[in-house]
Amino acid sequence: MILALDAMGGDNAPQAVVDGALLALESLKKDVTIWLFGDEEQIKNCLAGKTYPADRLVIKPASEVITCDEAPAAAVRRKKNSSMVLAAKAVADREADCFISAGSTGAVLSCGTLIIRRIKDVQRPALSPLIPNLQGGHTMIIDAGANVDCKPLYLVQFAQMGSAYMELVEGVKEPAVGLLNNGEEAEKGNELTKETYPLLQALEGIQFAGNCEARELMSGDFDVVVTDGFAGNVLLKSTEGTAKAITSMLKTELMGSIRGTIGGAIAKPAFAALKKKMDYTEVGGAPLLGVNGGVIKAHGSSNAKAFFNAIRQAQKLVEGGVTEKIAAAVQAGKTVSAEEKIG
Amino acid sequence: MILALDAMGGDNAPQAVVDGALLALESLKKDVTIWLFGDEEQIKNCLAGKTYPADRLVIKPASEVITCDEAPAAAVRRKKNSSMVLAAKAVADREADCFISAGSTGAVLSCGTLIIRRIKDVQRPALSPLIPNLQGGHTMIIDAGANVDCKPLYLVQFAQMGSAYMELVEGVKEPAVGLLNNGEEAEKGNELTKETYPLLQALEGIQFAGNCEARELMSGDFDVVVTDGFAGNVLLKSTEGTAKAITSMLKTELMGSIRGTIGGAIAKPAFAALKKKMDYTEVGGAPLLGVNGGVIKAHGSSNAKAFFNAIRQAQKLVEGGVTEKIAAAVQAGKTVSAEEKIG
Questions:
Q1: Whether complex ipTM tops 0.90
Q2: Per CATH, domain A1-122+290-343 is 3.20.20.70
């Protein structure tokens, strides 16, 4: 298996990408080879003095870098020698199995749709981050921002794609799929969710668990939460923002008194454990599902551990055959649901 | 000023409503009179043995109760002698100034639109809860669920209504209005927000502060966050749900070790202070803005303190002339924006 890493993407590139790759080569199976796309000299500097299996770590020189302040699609079209585009192209050309980047989200999405391209009959690829839940697992939000205006059929396919991922990568048997909605009752919703509900109910091959209110995201009752990318983006960022705000408020309260400071110091391991649970670096990245090969968008501020986890996630995604399973599910859904039920 | 309370609405009715009213009569200005709509005997039992100014607390008998498991609009139409409908009717008939209920959200919204009715030229009334923010104030989400499918003009009016409330009730000078969006950049968004952005930019009488990402809700940088009711509902419930999940996770971690338990016990006042900051009972309720009179939807699980705060909020809303200010702003906006710019 060959994993194509954009070594120049993210706040801590290329050092964190290189270090993450080295961690992965140490602990993952021997059949994983990593290609690092980027500035050869910079990558070599990051590798200086380190021992690693040279046959499994290949530098692929790339002379350009796509930055976060460029218009994503235009940058992807123009910068053909960028680390991101070349890494994506390796997957598109079937030379590599999965593309990983912590660069601009928009550019990674454009690489997915413009270079690696959609799986046949997939309406829209979807960005699918995983959120830690109260039952110790993860809940996927699909879509979290790739498609801000959606049609019911897109959401039906998000359900299929999310289920395939959670089963094959996270090992969840019969993942419970919820439809993000403004109430639990079947009749609730806006035009989109009202039309989508009966389609999900009728869809074979997934476990539809009904409407999921935003407050249930972290309950663990749902493994996959299906939504349009606008509401999904609100859900994702609100969850991140609230977690951060609560932590910040608590810190202020603890630091504001001697009792608080002492109590906080004693309870430090508990706070650390909570932080670890909420830590995005433990998850890896957000897969872009629905394209012809693996794509993982790592967090922009990823450190070495985050890249290591993204690489581990990529390995599972490839080994599990997620892309193939999605293609098959969408094909089956097309025959059974799209023609007969969606019409 | 007369405030019309649905004494039978909410999990703790009628006792909590009655107790909240008594607290309010003790501490608020003498010109506030409270009408309690509901079962006369039950309310009298709640009042038994208590001293209060009888001229300022009037029982208004109502033989029916609207429950949370009824279809809201149908229940409001059918149960003409319910505590909720009669309290709303008192405002519609200009006998009372503000209607407060902790009953079914859907039924309260129906009372607003069917009984009290929209202000002239207001497209859609909006449910507008207030969230504690990191700067010690509140941020309003408008709309949080009354209108799941919206048009740009609705959002323009939400901006006007939210600004009027924050200025007159919360005393915020030139409230900063944000548009909930999936990115900060002006060009971001779905069809609705892309169309709404330039309208808000051109709108006179409000301070448009650009796009607000969901993660910024609690930052305090925005006083009013304008959104369609579907995304607003996701934002509200996700904020509530995440706060609860984080607290629950932290509790589990603290209780899981001796150090955590001891540290937690010592730092207890800090946790209590945080809890108080996040406590919805401190806020009051969510106003329904855009109808011909005050409407406040209190939280279903409101206790006496929450009702007291909702009553205090109602008093400010009436004294501030929020309804009148909204009517004037919408009229001005109609001339300036709706015809010339939106038209």
A1: yes
A2: no
Spell out the residues 6+ positions from residue B198 whose beta carbon is closer than 8 angstroms to its own.
none
Establish if B191 touches chain A: CB-CB under 8 angstroms.
Answer: yes
Indicate the residue type of B58.
V
Window A:308-337, CB contacts with B under 8 Å: none
Q: Hey, is the C-beta of A195 within 8 angstroms of any chain B C-beta?
A: no
Identical fold for domains A1-122+290-343 and A129-282, yes or no, is yes
pTM: 0.93
B259 to A273: CB separation less than 8 angstroms, yes or no: no
Neighbours of A335 (CB within 10 A): 9
Q: B84, B8 in Cβ contact below 8 A?
A: yes
CA–CA distance, B199 with B210 (Å, rounded to integer) = 11
How far apart (Å, rounded) are the C-alpha atoms in residues B68 and B233? Answer: 18
- Considering only CB atoms, B145 lies closest to which of A182, A248, A264, namely A182
CB B143 within 8 A of CB A182: no
With an 8 Å Cβ cutoff, are B249 and A277 in contact?
Answer: yes
Task: Quote the tokens at residue B207.
Answer: 């301070």
pLDDT per residue as tens digits for the range B179-233: 999 999 999 999 999 999 999 999 999 999 999 999 999 999 999 999 999 999 9
All residues of chain B having their beta carbon less than 8 Å from the beta carbon of residue A271 are 250, 253
Q: Which fold has domain B129-282?
A: Isopropylmalate Dehydrogenase (3.40.718)
Phi/psi for A94 (5° steps) reads 65, 20
Amino acid letter, B30: K
Nearest to B118 by CA among B126, B108, B107, B130: B126
Facing residue for A230 by CB, picked from B190, B233, B262: B190
| Domain layout of chain B by residue ranges | 1-122+290-343, 129-282
What are the structure tokens assigned to A167, written together?
């089963």
